[in-house]
Structures are given as C-alpha cells and as structure tokens.
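Next comes this protein.

***
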Amino acid sequence: MDHPILKETRTKMAASLEHLSNEMRGLRSGRATPALVENIKVDYYGSPTPLGQISQIQIPQPREIAIKPFDPSAISAMEKAIQASALGINPQSDGKVLRLTVPMMSEDQRKKLVGRLKEMGEQARVSLRNARRDSNKKADAAKGAELTEDDLKRLKDEIQAALKEHEGKVDELLKAKTTEVMEE
C-alpha cells in the first residue's frame, strides 16, 4: 500500500512532467501544430483568454495554421496577440480567418531550440528533485510517530525510485522533441 507521502510525491512529479510536456508543445519546430498558438493570450473583452478557447484552429497544410474566430470582431485582437507573442510569425488576415505560415528553421535556430529544450529538461529535473527533497523531509518528520525505522527507509527508497522513473520520462520527452526538431 502506498504511503500518503509517496502518493503526494508521485502527484507532484507527474505535474512537473505535465508542465514540461505543455511547454514543449508550444515550441516551434518548423511544423504547424495547433499547440503553437492555442495558449497565446488574447485580450478578449478585457480579459486574457487563450486563443484556443475563442477560435477554431486547423492545419490545412503541413506548414500552415488557420485560425477562425468564433466571434469575427475579435480577429484584430487575435492578430495583435500573435504578433506580440514569442512565435515570430506574422498572421495574414482576410477578415474572417487568420493564416500563419510556419517558416523552415535554419540549422542554427534548431540548435538554439535544442539548447532551450535541454534547459527546460533541467528545470523539470530540478523540480522533480525538489519534490523528492520535500517528501524526504516529511518522511523524516513522520519517523517515530507513524513510521518505524524500516518503514522510513522503505519509503525513502520508493521516493527515490519514483524520482528515477520520472527522470527517465523527462529524458524520453527530450529525446522525442529533439529528434522532431532536428529532422527538418
């Protein structure tokens, strides 16, 4: 049976992986994907709203993103938000649909992106290790009251195993995204 501290650790570690995965989805790799634009915040009637919630995002061609707003009056706000984002792509508007053409990435750009991926992976690993540290502190605090010496050692071993498992998943995510970026 999993100890509550171990369950909490696994939950925190899974959240770190989810965050990394979401961050990676938003990186431009030379391919058109809805994830590039769906989380861009648009000033929609005074509140920052993700683009994916106020429009339909389609990929009509491998290097093109078509964004059709549910409310056509929001198209200029969407255009401004895309231009202000770190995406670096200017949208083309026909008044009803925004079109983004995702340019090919140069070798230098891809290498910079791989460097950014490695930084993101290291941030995720730090987050995982922090979750381990916090859980080990909680386990040490529970020693005597609810955990015997043997239970404490077993719990710390399980926390370490969870860390190794999640670090392996970080490596898998990094490898997959790096391959995607470099194969252009």
Observations:
- The helical segments are 4-25, 75-84, 107-142, 149-182.
